[in-house]
Amino acid sequence: GQIIGGREAAPHSRPYMAYLRVRRDEKWIRCSGFLVKPTVVLTAAHCQGEIITVVLGAHNVSQWEPSQQVIPVQRQIPHPQYNDTPKNNDIMILQLQGEAHHNKYVDFIKLPPAKQRVRPYTKCSVAGWGRTGPEKKQMSDTLWEADMAVMEDADCPRNQDGPYPYYDSTTMMCVGDPDEGSSSFKGDSGGPLVCGKKAQGIVSWGPEDGTPPAVYTRVTAFIPWIQETMKDLQP
Ligand SMILES: *[C@@H]1O[C@H](CO)[C@@H](O)[C@H](O)[C@H]1NC(C)=O
Q: From the CA of 132, how far away is ligand 1's center (Å)?
């Protein structure tokens, strides 16, 4: 994921944001996530790796900041029905090795109730440490954010020859107005779509060229699974 057409976020204005360093196939990749409990971060299942380290309270991830809390992940719990293709059920619970210390730089975000479906044209926002434009190869050091409108399901048509061949409106959301130009892409994977004060979506996949709309995991479809799984987490 990448934030295109967005802006640098005010430092620490989104204290639930988690920066993930993911070790996979001898490389480090980056993902985002969001803190929902002192020991639980949610992200996308496609951010799985051999090792994941979570950085909370960060703004510029290329430097050490006194507000940062670096916590290794003890257990990765991708959704049991996650498939790489199609990227369905793209959600993962990360159990942290230690508790996040709650302060003004590190805080939780609320999940929506299971039945609360976001209406099309709702204005939401997304944030991440991904690329900030299609031409810029550089990933962003600092947190970027962009406003993002929820679209109709019909704006991500499930057409085998189109860019959304696997769109499933029960578990996915179609997000990003093509007329506004902002989208989200690779480095932002796993970051939350925030509507009101709740995490309604998770950056998942989209057209290769980054043009909106993109596809987000529909968090409300997974509330029962999240609650059941969190209940069973052993410290
Ligand atoms: C982030 O930190 C690095 C390392 O200190 C610095 O070179 C870079 O300019 C910083 N980025 C921003 C946008 O402040």
A: 15
- In the reported structure, the alpha carbon of residue 142 is separated from the centroid of ligand 1 by a whole-number distance in angstroms of 8
Q: What is the pLDDT of residue 2?
A: 47
Query: Residue 108 in contact with residue 39, Cβ under 8 Å?
Result: no
Count Cβ neighbours within 10 Å for each residue of 82-101 and write b for 16 or more, e otherwise.
beeebbbbbbbbbbbeeebe
Q: Ligand 1 pocket test: pick from 60, 65, 131, 142 the residue with the most ligand atoms within 8 Å of its Cβ.
A: 60
Could you state, in order of their start, the residue ranges of all structural domains in the chain? 17-108+222-231, 110-220
Name the pLDDT band for 218 (thresholds 50, 70, 90): very high
Ligand 1 mean position to 83 CA, how many Å? 37
84 has catalytic annotation: no
- The answer regarding whether domain 110-220 maps to CATH 2.60.40.10 reads no
Residue of 40, 45, 34 lying closest to 231 (CA atoms): 40
Cα separation, 158 vs 144, whole angstroms: 30
- For the chain, the distance separating the N- and C-terminal CA atoms, rounded to the nearest angstrom, is 32
Give the pTM.
Answer: 0.93
**Best mean pLDDT range from 64-73, 129-138, 144-153, 176-185:** 64-73
Q: Highest-confidence range of 72-81, 138-147, 177-186, by mean pLDDT?
A: 72-81
110-220 matches 17-108+222-231 in CATH topology: yes
Tell me the per-residue pLDDT of 84-96, one tens digit each, with 9 for 90 and over: 878 899 999 999 9
Q: Is 90 a catalytic residue?
A: yes
Taking residues 188-193, what's their average pLDDT? 91
Superfamily of domain 17-108+222-231: Trypsin-like serine proteases (2.40.10.10)
